[in-house]
Amino acid sequence: MNVVYRGLPNPITVSFAGISDNNVTASAAGMSSAGGKGKYNLNPGSGTEVTVVATGKMADGKSVSDKRVFRIKNIPAPQGAIGGTAGIQKGAKSRLEASTIAAILPDFLYDLDFQVTQFALKVPGQASIVVNGNKVDERCRAALSRAKAGDQVTISDIKTRVVGASIATKTAAPAIYEIQ
After folding, report:
1. Longest dimension (CA), the chain
2. For the chain, how many helices (H) and strands (E)?
């Protein structure tokens, strides 16, 4: 399946059987050279498809060309993680207080580095606290001090950005932490 992701420099290798790499060129909207013969990066823009056209010059001077259509997909929303682990976790209040709030994309083709810029912490029976950054602050610690064993603390509205990529801010799925 030919798929590229919007906002990422998708590596593409282009070649023709029987034609040396120095006699092959490729073009597409958002495509740039990646520094080697036949090596390109494709950073697709708007739309749902992009067509890559490859042209090769044969030994007798004739040109041949071929094209491939790639589907353009958006990067999926990440999952919220506490201390690097997504989903529901259990532990002591002190562990949550010391943990970093993160966002991950398990089993994604690219290793993306998400930076958490903001999140909301909700302790049952208390108002939600909006935090800028990726660590709990003093307001969160005060709210956690009133939490009881069995309370499920919700980390939600996790705002992220992808480090080194031109991708719009993504909101990660919530993470749950049960106080033990």
Report:
1. 81
2. 2, 16
d(Cα 110, Cα 76) in Å, to the nearest integer? 12
Q: Walk across the sheet containing 63-73 and list its strands.
A: 3-5, 63-73, 49-57, 24-27
Q: What is the pLDDT of residues 72-81, one digit of tens each?
A: 998 888 999 9
φ/ψ (deg, to 5) at 9 = -80, 90
- CA distance to 3, 19, 20, 37, per residue, from 23 (Å): 26, 7, 6, 9
The model carries a pTM of 0.78
Beta bridge partners of 173: 79
Distance between CA atoms of residues 148 and 64, nearest Å: 71
- Cβ–Cβ under 8 Å, residues 114 and 163: yes
**Element (DSSP H or E) covering residue 102:** strand 101-104
From the list 81, 93, 85, the residue with the least C-alpha distance to 178 is 93
Average pLDDT estimate for 44-58: 93
